[in-house]
Specification:
- With about 325 residues, the protein is of the alpha+beta class.
- The protein folds into two domains: about 120 residues, 60s Ribosomal Protein L30, Chain: A; about 170 residues, Phosphoribosyl-aminoimidazole Synthetase, Chain A, domain 2.
- Helix content is about 35%, strand content about 25%.
- The strands form two sheets. The protein has a seven-stranded mixed sheet with strand order 8-10-7-11-9-12-13, sandwiched between helices.
- Strand 1 and strand 2 form a beta hairpin.
- Helix 3 packs parallel to helix 4.
- The chain is globular and about 55 Å long.
- About 40% of the residues are buried.
- The structure holds adenosine-5'-diphosphate and magnesium ion.
- The site of magnesium ion has 6 residues, from helix 3 and strand 8.
Amino acid sequence: MKLSEIGEFGLIDRFSPPFLRDLPRAVVGIGDDAAIIERSADEALLVTIDTLVEEIHFVRAKTTPRDLGEKSLAVNLSDIAAMGGTPTSAFLALGLPPDTPVEWIDQLFEGLHGLCRRESVPLLGGDTTRSPGPILITITVLGSIVPRNIKRRSSARPGDVLCVTGTLGDSGGGLRVMLQDLTLGEDERSLLERHCRPQAHLAEGRWLGAQPDVHAMMDVSDGIDSDIRHIMRQSRCGARIALERLPVSRELRGAAGRHGWDLIELMMTGGEDYCLLLTVDPSAMSAVGRAFARDFGRELSVIGSITAEEGRLELLRDGQPALLHQHGFDHFLGRGV
Ligand code: ADP
Ligand code: MG
């Protein structure tokens, strides 16, 4: 059997059971945005790792090394935000072909350093090796959190309201602009920026972590269509998403109209939005929503709800069942964009 038949998540399910057995009581391993190692009642260590591979995650000719350095850290910060935590340090493993221009590498580090400085996340070590082909960038980020604020993918409850902290599909739109070399109007430029320079929702994650009525949380990396299934699986529930409620930016609406993109497919499956997907106790939703809007100056967007029907994802459009033709990202099953 080939890996492409079981896919990325099929593979993780296949190898993870023995590693999930007999873990120490205060440790949570494979399955969430970050591992959790509880140190005391007041502090837990969070650990996350992500890799960017040339030609898979980026095309060298179409990305500046500065943006790439920043993005390689930002995607990890997003996983710490998804737990409700604060990132504290980073480690970097680089695989580089010998003909890589040193100036290119300098700029990669400039981008990385800029974000390290802005978020007070020092780079504390790493590893550098020769790569026979593509550039490989792997970053590990450690984070810290008060254990009672940890938000897991497994804590959603039937009846919870499903929300996101930002607009969806902008990064997927930016990727299309980049790959199709579309003419850069104002909208296209903004989408490209969203794709190349994702912003981790760290302040939002910490704020939501401190809300007891927020139950489950994760970041949107593969697209809602794929990511919600992680919450459904880990929480043994189902979900209902009202497609007409997905938050869309003015820029994406403009570009989608001009280029004939299917807005809903892009918002559900484009991926790399790096906003947060969370579930909120229904009785507290209006209070949490109001407080979020007051503190962040924008809405916490309600997009659906959690249902009791384990494994069932219902997509509705104005109340009627709807289907998607594409699905979220999986490294081995192929992507839709
Ligand atoms: P994320 O998108 O938040 O980075 P993934 O969906 O990539 O998380 O991974 C799902 C879970 O599987 C995570 O808990 C991750 O740590 C774990 N995982 C993925 N690949 C591996 C691997 N090669 N070895 C161990 N754990 C892995
Ligand atoms: Mg994640």
